[in-house]
Amino acid sequence: MLAFAPLRDVVGAAGTALSWLTDLLEPLAGQMATAAAIVLFTIAVRLLISPLTVAQVRGERRRAALAPQVRDLQRRYADDPATLQREVFALYREAGANPIAGCLPLLLQAPFLLVLYRLFTTSEGGTGLLDERLAGVPLGHHLGDGVGGAAGALFAVLLAVLLAVAWWSSRRARRASAAVGTVAGTPTEGPGAAVLGRLLPLLPFTTVLVALVLPLAAVIYLVTTSVWSAVEQAVLRRPQAVPPSQALDRNS
After folding, report:
1. Please, what is the end-to-end C-alpha distance for the chain in angstroms?
2. Whole-prediction pTM value?
3. Of 6, 39, 61, 229, which sits 20 to 30 A from 76 (CA to CA)?
């Protein structure tokens, strides 16, 4: 179909690049060369969008620094939720602390996941990739194709890693959600905010559900990007040292 011609071109280019990377890694990785190429491909994607992740964390810290002003707005517009929300978002916008920016790193990965899906489920990236295997399991294998032989054990390991990372990420999300009202000072009243607060910690587990319907190659991508995200968040969100001058001010 002509409507998908641009996508076929992208998938074909990605297939050529992945095949080249596989050939490059084959002397070192042997039969795991294609899987290793997918891991390196994922790391390249994450490095590409890492500036957005850094900007996301900086925006969160800016919002935390605006807490006193937000609390003042909450007192001023306590009886006018619509005005309160408008004023808070205006304050964030002026300070360059866009609360929506946190979704961009996740959204930008969707096209890469789609490309990998088509690479290992169609012949658009070249028939050679469809024959590649990991531990004897075709990289285009889905759970629905069966869990006999090495497939069951391989998917079990990958899903266990995804589940562990999702649990860890969920714990961090719960702590961050609990800190919103006390540290960031954002308005958390209302049933909508309460529902959102309950849903956000569950979002990391969607990767496990998505992995159930993806081919093995895309699951490898998901595992790699999830582990990368966990390490990246731990590094970027580590507690910052308080400058001596501020520490003196707090103790005075």
Report:
1. 71
2. 0.74
3. 61
